[in-house]
Structure formats: structure tokens, C-alpha cells
Automatic annotation (TrEMBL):
Residue stretches spanning the membrane: 14-34, 63-82, 88-105, 117-133, 139-162, 183-202, 239-264, 276-293, 305-327
Every Integral membrane bound transporter domain range: 194-320
Subcellular location(s) per record: Membrane
UniProt entry tagged with the keyword Glycosyltransferase: no
One Pfam entry name: FUSC_2
Main location group: membrane
Domain of life: Bacteria
KW Transmembrane helix (keyword) present: yes
Keywords linked to the UniProt accession: Membrane, Transmembrane, Transmembrane helix
Membrane topology, from the record: Multi-pass membrane protein
Protein name: FUSC family protein
Length: 351
């Protein structure tokens, strides 16, 4: 386990993809800075994270997948924004949506990393924002601008680089059987919904940090891998928040925050496929700069850092428990048995 924490994995990811991802996130930010609306720029930058769903080595396939994910991103944000009017309803909505996202992506065979994570992250952020019916349309619009910018950049980037890899076969994704998919989707939904509910019960300032951390930990491919990710996330977060606190003590400017996000996004995409634990250090810094309002970053860094570590710790613990359920054979057997019973009953009364 200790070897896994610090091991650097080999990868065939192109060196220029992290740079492209960094610019996709930075361009909306810089536009927000130029138009004196940095919060709208940050919202658009979150939408631009759809660039991470570049998956195919064929131009048509790549753009089709990216367009599907783009609509999914916008829909995720819209669902969250519309249903944020009642905090006690939000855990149920997020649980149902997480279930639907995981089930649908498996049916569409879109399970390669980052998989379901960013769809649920976007919905978690939107559903935890203060509900204001008059700003929903403009928020969705700002978010969509970031998505559009990322798709445009991805198109021109793909035209330039795919000449070199056109003959390279796509990665084959094994489709899960319907019962396994259903069970996993139920576990994801319940765990993420519970994470948001706990955050609300604890009256956390920004409750979306808990389900996001929970989802990040549950991305592991085995039970052992999930526990390793939980340990990496807690340790990496501790170091990353310490570095963030140090940077914020320098009274960083708004332009400095924009440049930091550009550099951090590039570093994260370079490291995340090589060592998740080290990448988490920079992920923690990036998410703080990207998701927190500037007034919190500049005005109260000490309070901010302490609360964020508590949020992420809670989310990681819940995610580790959810991961245990995700790979527990008896839970899968029991759920499959109940699904079969339900199917038989529905057929019986359907006739």
C-alpha cells in the first residue's frame, strides 16, 4: 500500500493535452477578468472541464463523445440550479441524478476516466448554490460558454494532433451486465446523496465539497484502490491546503488567481494519471481557487482552509465506506436477488 501511495505510473498520454486543458480552463477566467466579472469566469471555467472527456483517437468519434458530454455537463448544472430551492430535497435529487448518470454512462460505454465524476461534481456545485430564480438562466449561460469554448478548442486541437495517432486503436471498454450496473448505480446514488445530507445536517458553508470528495474516492477500481485513494486524498489535501494558505498570505491578486489556475490545471492533468496522491496536492489548491468566491480567498484564508480540510475529510471517509459497499460481493448478490424478485412481480402484475 505504501508503495502505491508514492509510485509513479507509466502513461501514454500526450504531453500537450495537459497544456490544452490548462488553457481551456484559463481562457474563460481571463475573459471574466477582462469584463470585471471573475465569478462568471470561474463558472465558465468549471464548464470548460468537459475538455477532460477527450477519449477517442478518431476525430468524428472524439467530437461525438465530447458533444454528448457537453450536453450532459449543461444538463447537470441546470438540474442542480433548478432544484436548489429546498436544501432538504437536494440530497434526494442528487442521489437520483448520480444513479442516473452512472447507469447511463455504463450503458453508453463511456466509463473511461474521468467517468461519472465531473457530471456529479457539476450537479453538486449547482445544487448547493444559493437559490435565486432570477439568476438561474444567466448562470447556466455562463457555464455553457465555458463548455462551448472547450469544445471549440478541442476541435482545432484534434485536427492538429490526430494525424499522428489516427491508426492507433481506441481503448476497448468492457460493458458491465445490467444487474452489476444497476447495483453500482444504486450504491453511488445512496452514498453521494447521504454525503450531501450529512453536509447539510452539519450546516457546512459549502456542502458540495463533501459529495465531491466522496465521489473522488469512489473512483477506485478495487476496494483496496479506494482505500489507497482515500489515504492519498486526505494526506494530499492536508499538504495542498497548507500550500494554498501560504500563497494566500501573500495577498494574491485576481489576475494572480487566474494565472495560478492555469498552471495548476496543467500540473494536475500531468500528474493525475501518474500518481493520484501527488496530484491531489495540486487538485486541492486548484479546487479552492476555482470553486471559492474571491472574497473568501482574499478576505478570510485561515477560516477557509480549516473548514475545507474538515469537509474533504468527511467526504473521504464516506467515500471509503461507499467503496467498501461497491466491491462487497454479498451486497451485490442481495441487490441482484431483490432486482430479480421485483422484475418477476412486475411481469406478474403487468399481465
Amino acid at each position: 500500500m505504501w508503495n502505491q501511495l508514492f509510485k509513479f505510473n507509466k502513461t501514454d498520454r500526450a504531453w500537450h493535452l495537459p497544456v490544452v486543458a490548462g488553457f481551456c480552463v484559463a481562457i474563460p477566467l481571463l475573459l471574466g477578468f477582462l469584463y470585471n466579472d471573475i465569478e462568471a469566469g470561474k463558472l465558465a471555467s468549471i464548464g470548460a472541464l468537459v475538455i477532460l472527456y477527450i477519449q477517442s483517437n478518431r476525430l468524428v468519434n472524439r467530437m461525438m463523445i465530447l458533444m454528448v458530454c457537453s450536453f450532459g455537463f449543461i444538463f447537470s448544472f441546470a438540474i442542480g440550479a433548478v432544484f436548489s430551492f429546498n436544501p432538504w430535497l437536494t440530497p434526494v435529487i442528487l442521489a437520483l441524478y448520480t444513479f442516473g448518470v452512472h447507469y447511463s454512462l455504463n450503458r453508453l460505454e463511456l466509463t473511461r476516466p474521468p467517468g461519472n465524476f465531473f457530471f456529479v461534481m457539476v450537479a453538486s456545485i449547482a445544487i448547493s448554490l444559493r437559490h435565486n430564480p432570477t439568476t438561474i438562466a444567466s448562470s447556466i449561460g455562463n457555464f455553457s460558454i465555458g463548455v462551448i469554448i472547450a469544445v471549440m478548442i478541442a476541435f482545432f486541437y484534434s485536427i492538429l494532433v490526430l494525424r499522428e495517432v489516427t491508426n492507433k486503436p481506441d481503448v476497448i471498454v468492457l460493458q458491465k451486465n445490467n444487474y452489476l450496473n444497476m447495483t453500482e448505480s444504486i450504491i453511488f446514488g445512496i452514498t453521494v446523496g447521504l454525503a450531501l445530507l450529512i453536509a447539510i445536517l452539519l450546516k457546512l458553508e459549502n456542502p458540495y465539497w463533501v459529495p465531491i470528495s466522496c465521489m473522488a474516492v469512489m473512483q477506485g477500481v478495487t476496494a483496496k484502490h479506494i482505500w489507497i485513494r482515500a489515504a492519498q486524498r486526505v494526506l494530499g489535501t492536508f499538504i495542498g491546503l497548507g500550500l494554498t494558505w501560504f500563497i494566500l498570505q501573500m495577498r494574491i491578486t485576481t489576475l494572480g488567481i487566474c494565472i495560478s489556475i492555469l498552471l495548476l490545471q496543467t500540473i494536475v492533468e500531468f500528474l493525475v494519471v501518474r500518481n493520484y496522491g501527488i496530484a491531489v496536492i495540486f487538485i486541492s489548491m486548484l479546487t479552492i481557487f476555482l470553486a471559492e468566491p474571491n472574497m473568501n480567498l482574499i478576505g478570510q484564508p485561515d477560516h477557509l482552509i480549516a473548514i475545507r480540510f474538515f469537509d474533504i475529510l468527511i467526504g473521504s471517509i464516506i467515500g471509503a465506506a461507499g467503496g467498501w459497499m461497491l466491491y462487497h460481493e454479498q451486497i451485490h448478490f442481495f441487490t441482484k436477488k431483490q432486482l430479480l424478485k421485483t422484475k418477476v412481480i412486475m411481469k406478474k402484475y403487468g399481465h
